[in-house]
Write a structure and sequence with these properties.
By secondary structure, the protein is of the alpha/beta class. Helix content is 34%, strand content 21%. The chain folds into 2 domains: 11-147, 3-Layer(aba) Sandwich (Rossmann fold), CATH 3.40.50; 180-417 and 437-480, Dihydrodipicolinate Reductase, domain 2. Residues 14-187 form the Glucose-6-phosphate dehydrogenase NAD-binding domain.
Length: 491
């Protein structure tokens, strides 16, 4: 199976913060890969804008270094790189002042599709939006892309939305969450709504529980002071895990249309029940010293440079969706730093059959489980019970029906674009389906804020957990008291 590449119309894409880390790791390499695949048409231009003083030649050299570092050797074609670099321009700009804006206006062609990527701190979103209009650069057809965090609570999210709305219509604002650009996340919607197989079973009558796990092996070193003001709840649960929960729990939209999909996601967020203190586990990873005593990995408190920090690097929650479809079915969410393996997955565990015709005296019954792997090795896995081969009676064994995209789609079809690549191309197309709407962001904060305020008022301290483990012991008990257990964290 060969994946199809559908070119977009010519465009001008302005990347504010073009010399920053995100642009270096994701945006510029991703745009090159789309160019290499033939998706970026002749006549398109990418304009870098940042406070760094450099000319276009220096910016092209910067982009070449980013491509060399972050693009695989199989796509680093000298002629293609040179052609891509030739569509790059650069303007030094003062986001808070007047410098560079007239030069940017001279470069942006109003007759083209115009998109402006705000790869900058949220404090600069307002000034950038204001100056794009003040200097007559952004038209009524322009699109802006804003990175998370979308505020740090409901009040700040409302201020941010109001600021952007002063200069841009909601249809022009693309709030990007790269998890929604992952191939497997979109395939989740296809599996649910393009097949009759699962949707009739996708409810509390047949689903025992759902687990959503996003585990990381890295700590917060290098960004500890920033992370300490955020924590796992704000950094991951309020956006990434919330979006995955919505796609699992949402009702079928009337059409695969941006507002239809986002309307159904919003209903899920508004149906989330408040979470009690007993259904929350928070943790901080501890320092680790190797057995020979020579190697040392700092703990969270050391990485955060705050010995009295009460910010969580791990959180697990039991969540309920108060509607007819999911009444009584728990959703278990967990995410953390410095865990055993880097993995992101959604596991839908179905209930046992109401009656077994088999002799289970010597068997441990296992449920059917549909596992959607987001990383690494994107794909899906359905665990089923079958007869173990061989004579000697009916012995049951659980086996996987495994679909790795890399294996199922073949060498050509497995060339899966990075999430940022897909989402930026969706911006150029004007498709907002995979981007969050303002009311969706505010609803998520309205649910999250009381949880954070609760543990702050109680003075709760996160529980320590060993680096390289599966998280705090209390997280295991969160499942065990329900007669369930977490899936093993492994790549």
């Amino acid at each position: 199976m060969v994946s199809r590449v559908i070119p977009v119309d010519p465009f001008d894409l302005v990347v504010f913060g073009a010399t920053g880390d995100l642009a270096n790791r994701k945006i510029l390499p991703g745009l090159y890969r789309r160019f290499f695949s033939g998706q970026i048409p002749e006549g398109a231009r990418i304009i870098g804008a940042a406070r760094t003083e450099m000319d276009t030649a220096a910016f092209r050299a910067h982009a070449r270094a980013a491509i060399d570092e972050h693009v695989g050797a199989g796509k680093r074609n000298a002629a293609q790189i040179e052609a891509f670099l030739n569509i790059l321009e650069y303007v030094p700009i003062d986001a808070m002042g007047e410098g560079g804006w007239n030069e940017l206006k001279a470069l942006v062609r109003p007759q083209m599709i115009n998109a402006f990527y705000f790869s900058v701190a949220p404090a600069l979103f307002g000034p950038l939006a204001e100056r794009l209009h003040a200097f007559g650069i952004a038209t009524s057809q322009a699109r802006i892309v804003v990175e998370k965090p979308f505020g740090r609570d409901l009040a700040s999210a409302k201020v941010l939305n109001t600021t952007l709305a002063e200069h841009f219509d909601e249809t022009q604002i693309y709030r990007i969450d790269h998890y929604l650009g992952k191939e497997t996340v979109q395939n989740l919607m296809a599996v649910r709504f393009a097949n009759i197989l699962f949707e009739p079973l996708w409810n509390a009558q047949f689903v025992d529980h759902v687990q959503i796990t996003v585990a990381e092996t890295v700590g917060v070193g290098g960004r500890g002071s920033y992370y300490d003001k955020s924590g796992a709840m704000r950094d991951m649960v309020q956006n990434h895990l919330m979006q995955l929960l919505c796609l699992i729990a949402m009702e079928p939209p009337y059409h695969f249309d941006p507002d239809a999909v986002r309307d159904e996601k919003l209903k899920v967020i508004r149906a989330l029940q408040p979470v009690s203190a007993a259904d929350i586990v928070r943790g901080q990873y501890l320092a680790h010293r190797s057995d020979d005593g020579k190697g040392h990995q700092p703990g969270y408190l050391e990485d955060a440079e705050n010995p009295d920090s009460r910010t969580e690097s791990y959180i697990a929650l039991r969540v309920h969706v108060a509607n007819w479809r999911w009444k009584g079915t728990p959703f278990y969410l967990r995410t953390g730093k410095r865990l055993r393996a880097r993995t992101s997955e959604i596991a839908i565990t179905f209930k046992e059959p109401p009656h077994s015709i088999f002799d289970e005296a010597d068997e441990t019954w296992r449920e059917n489980v549909l596992v959607i792997r987001l990383q690494p090795n994107e794909g899906m896995n359905l665990k089923m019970m079958i007869k173990e081969p061989g004579p000697g009676g009916m012995r049951l064994v659980q086996v996987p029906l495994d679909m790795s995209f890399a294996e199922a789609l073949g060498e050509d079809g497995a060339d899966i674009p990075d999430a940022y690549e897909r989402l930026i191309m969706d911006v150029i197309r004007g498709n907002q389906t995979l981007f969050m709407r303002g009311d969706e962001v505010e609803a998520a904060w309205a649910w999250t804020d009381p949880i954070i305020e609760g543990w702050t008022a109680r003075g709760d301290r996160p529980q320590g957990y060993d680096a390289g483990s599966s998280g705090p012991e209390d997280a295991l008990m969160l499942m065990h008291r329900d007669g369930r257990r977490w899936r093993e964290i492994r790549e």
